[in-house]
């Protein structure tokens, strides 16, 4: 440690200053990079979650509209129709709208699903991942939402899942038991999707939103900003080095060279400084010392004659 301190003390001022400046630069870059990365990541997550929330609210609005306005119009026909009319069911409406939405190139990776453990329509069957979500909601009834990321064949997607609870008795008309279900429903789907009870958690409402492009753009923004920050740091280091060399190092070297020349007997050298800053005051003090030395030497020579 002592040797290291001695070596550092023997390094030139410019090298010492650059070493400390580069260390400060590296620490600043690391801290600013971590802070910026965290901010941009949170911003990306917020943007994705807003998209998921918008899709969720849109589908729920469609569900309520179907339930309040479409279902009452089609319900009388369910008993007499030879085939079940699926448009009377809110889940069918939201699934079909989600399907049409995904046909749009800009929204092809946006999906909504009522992932059900015991569905009437097999298209609503929950997969293993979605089944675990439903089981989580069942084991934690107070939990209202689960969010995260899921890897799919089409890339990583952000998901928002909420419990689907049977809160209205009219839902049980098609799901409580085959005895009370519309005959057209039984003719179309068979005895599937029954045994539901009021206040049961039977499914999860889940939306999938693509996230890879958002995070890709976030990474691009991060590297662009960090490139600018690094460029500014480098420019500042170069500017400080230029000013340090011109304002400090060169002037100190001139004073040192003059002092060295005087020490070897060249009394014609003088400390010329126009500036009145600290280095200028140092040069003036050395010049007074040189003048005093000349006067002392003249007096000494006169006494020796």
Quickly describe the structure.
This protein is of the alpha+beta class and 305 residues long. It has helices at 2-10, 13-78, 90-102, 128-139, 172-175, 183-189, 212-263, 278-304, and strands spanning 111-116, 146-152, 155-165, 201-210.
User: How do the helices and strands follow one another from N- to C-terminus?
Assistant: HHHEHEEHHEHH
- Structural class, by secondary structure, is alpha+beta
Tell me, rounded to a whole number, the average pLDDT.
Answer: 85
Sheet having the most strands: 4 strands, antiparallel
Q: Give the strand order, joined by hyphens, for the main sheet.
A: 1-4-3-2
Q: What's the number of structural domains?
A: 2
* CA radius of gyration: 40 Å
Number of strands: 4
The share of residues in extended strands comes to 5-15%
Helical segment tally? 8
Low-confidence region ranges: none
The span between the termini is 56 Å
State the shape. Answer: rod-shaped
Secondary structure topology:
Blueprint: H1 2-10, H2 13-78, H3 90-102, E1 111-116, H4 128-139, E2 146-152, E3 155-165, H5 172-175, H6 183-189, E4 201-210, H7 212-263, H8 278-304
Antiparallel strand pairs: 1-4, 2-3, 3-4
Helix pairs in contact: 2-3, 2-7, 7-8
Describe this structure in words.
The protein has 305 residues and is an alpha+beta fold. It has 2 domains: 28-210, no CATH class; 219-304, no CATH class. It contains 8 helices and 4 strands. The protein has helices at residues 2-10, 13-78, 90-102, 128-139, 172-175, 183-189, 212-263, 278-304; strands spanning 111-116, 146-152, 155-165, 201-210. A 4-stranded antiparallel β-sheet has the order 1-4-3-2, with helices on both faces. A hairpin with a 2-residue loop joins strand 2 and strand 3.
